User: What shape does this take?
Amino acid sequence: MPPPLRSRAASQPEAPLLEVVNLTVRFGSPVGEVHAVEGVSISVGAGETVGIIGESGSGKTVACMSMTWLLPSPPARYLSGRITFKGEELRRNDEAQLRKVRGSGVGMIFQNARLSFNPAYRLGRQIEEVLRVQLGRSARAMLPEMVQTLRYCNIAEPEAVLGKFPHEVSGGVAQRVSIALALLSRPDLLIADEPTTALDLLSQIEVLSLLARLRDESGLSLVLVSHDLGVVRRIADRVIIMYAGRVVEEGPASAIFAAPRHPYTQGLLASALQQGDGERLYEVPGTPPDLASLPPGCSFRPRCPFAFDRCVTMPELAPAGATHQARCHLLERATEHA
Ligand SMILES: Nc1ncnc2c1ncn2[C@@H]1O[C@H](COP(=O)(O)OP(=O)(O)O)[C@@H](O)[C@H]1O
Ligand code: SF4
Ligand SMILES: [Mg+2]
Assistant: This one.
């Protein structure tokens, strides 16, 4: 396995850079209300890398986009949630404040960078437009910095790349261009939603190493979303496991990977080990729940090999060690039997 890329942030500082408290987001659907994110709290410290893992449909993207209230409402229904960034509450209806935070405080990069660019325009033109709208700066004034940032992101011939259309560059180059674009506004926090998922192995390693390097060199905080256990394992200081819209386990990466406490996390790790390379997030037996008709009690119950009578009620996220939490009734049972 390649060496870990964890940050130098030894522990979470006292005042988080970003704090999401009790976020609940739902969507209407013809078959019922989709409980996409339920009571999720996430905090990210300065210079810290927080990895969010969960299978498809577990609410990772909705949670990340809600961090700067980016999802339009409707269709999203925000039932609860308080978000603070650098100690200031982000107000959902304060467009001027949100534009400023999205433009310079929090950068976002997505899974398929090529698709996030408009296919009809050259990359340089699109970057110019973003700079003009977000930063109010002209491309001419920013050109040297733009070229330098692209070079920093391992783009060998920045001027040539700026002259290309999105389909003329590889997925890895497009992703590095989107990272460079996010960096131009000098964010304090970068939210990367599955940034390596659509890439070949070599590009995955390049993009991940780049994210780790810029975090270490600029003190940037990173939220890294992935369904790939290997990616998160290599880079995250702290890990959040999501299942069916809820956080089911959270703690330092070292604690989670050494001693997972939730049966879902245990299943993920066991299946990764069974595959032999311990690198990816493999499937836990059974199918993910339908978020429009969740079973009563613990959402993992239909797939859980340890389910018992108490699991018909929803467990709370409870301490599973000094800095580690899990949402499972087995924790209480262990305490009762201790
Ligand atoms: N615009 C939307 N309208 C309706 N449902 C949505 C919308 N966006 C997301 N969802 C639903 O929210 C749930 C969580 O989705 P998402 O956050 O994208 O999951 P993940 O990123 O973990 O794969 C899914 O059931 C998805 O179908
Ligand atoms: S609460 Fe029960 S069903 Fe849920 S993960 Fe724990 S043991 Fe399994
Ligand atoms: Mg997603």
Observations:
- Residues 27, 34, 36, 54, 56-62, 75, 291 surround adenosine-5'-diphosphate (ligand 1) (CB under 6 Å).
- The CA atoms of residues 268 and 284 lie 6 Å apart.
- The chain has one domain: 18-336.
- The mean pLDDT is 87.
